[in-house]
Amino acid sequence: MINPVLESGEAGAPAGPGQALALAAGRRLALVVTGGVAAYKAAELARLLTRAGALVRTVLTKNAARFITPLTFEALTGQPAYLSQWTRRGLEIEHVALADWAEAAVAAPATANFLAKMAHGLADDLASTFILTASGRPVLAAPAMNSRMLAAPATKANLETLAGRGVEIISPASGPLACGETGPGRLADPEIIALSAIRALTPKDFLGRRLAVTAGSTWESWDELRYLTNRSSGLMGRELALAAWLRGGQVTLVGGPAALRPPELPGLASLTAESTRDLLSALETLAYDVLIMAAAPADFRPAAPIAGKIKKERGPTEMPLALNPDILKSLPRRPGGLRVGFAAEDRDILERAQKKLAKKDLDLVAANEAGGPENAFAAAESRVRLIFRDGRIMDLGRRPKFAAAWAILDAVAALRAA
Known about the structure:
Strand 17, helix 14 and strand 18 form a beta-alpha-beta unit. By secondary structure, this protein is of the alpha/beta class. The protein folds into two domains: 4-201, 3-Layer(aba) Sandwich (Rossmann fold); 210-417, CoaB-like (Rossmann fold), CATH 3.40.50. The longest helix is centred in the last third of the chain and has 17 residues, at 401-417. It has helices at 17-20, 39-51, 64-67, 70-77, 94-101, 112-120, 126-133, 147-151, 153-164, 190-201, 235-246, 276-285, 327-330, 349-359, 401-417; strands at residues 28-33, 55-60, 81-82, 104-110, 139-143, 168-169, 173-176, 182-186, 210-215, 220-221, 227-228, 250-255, 268-272, 290-293, 300-302, 321-323, 338-345, 364-369, 381-388, 393-400. The strands form five sheets. It has an eight-stranded mixed β-sheet, sandwiched between helices. The protein has a six-stranded parallel β-sheet with strand order 3-2-1-4-5-6, with helices on both faces. Strands 7-8 form a two-stranded antiparallel ribbon. The protein is built from 15 helices and 20 strands.
């Protein structure tokens, strides 16, 4: 089913993860902030989720309040921020009431001390008491600490214990640390944490499925500096890969050199293929159950690329062209697999898409306009028509590309179910 939150995107809306974050609208999230210098990034996470429409209530530890105040979070979210179980706002028992309210809990940053409390079931303040009470909900933890603390056997054991109990650990990034050292231990990017929280709340209709998604244009070298290409940005492919990941899929995105990419997320691999032949070679080596060809690979290439740089003093130069392989026709159908193609056409869109479906043995074609008033290339929105193998046609109308990607995956999921 198409998510109604995704239906109302505005023209020119932020692309990619910005559109995906709209899935947070109306969801109730509890953010636990613990005492590390990365606590300031938790404010950005709260702001990001709130702007996406989520309801975010914050619990701070005593040490977190040394870095940032509850008032900051209340101002950013418009929701209560809690510090102590002894400061009662009413007759309710706060850690129980908050656990009943929240759909998911996110500890970010999660210090080594707080991870140890989580792993051993300690409950000596409001934050740890709440986390223990919320154990029936999705719980995520984003560690942030010194590299040596992260590598300590006790911390590693605690992380393994939590992961074994179903807590999602959002791996820290590497880079300069507040202590002056460099290495792993930086809090993950707030966008990655936000997307991980959304994924925890999203139905997993692609769980256990492997998807290969292609995106963007390929480059065909003319000389060592110049190439032939087209205007595809890879946005639709990126949105498809991100949406499939949110829905539980194991996703590999194969994009052209300039294709837009999602953030680095566990379970979402990203490969680069420069030419059409490189793209074909990459797909031949991948294991997948569903192939979605959203890329716009070049049909032609210079027949004889020239070494070095062609100087303009040489004047106009002829460029004989060679035909590139047809990727979908070259790839054999895999047993039990699904094949989805795109048809970007300048006229006779439905007729040409139907021919492509039959010619290339596809289960589904997503057709859109290349050029003209509804040009899909490099646009934030697209009008997509779905053509099915059984002859059905579904017009999705014009919508943000993430919303279109979500609807395409709805169709793919229904085909798989059938």
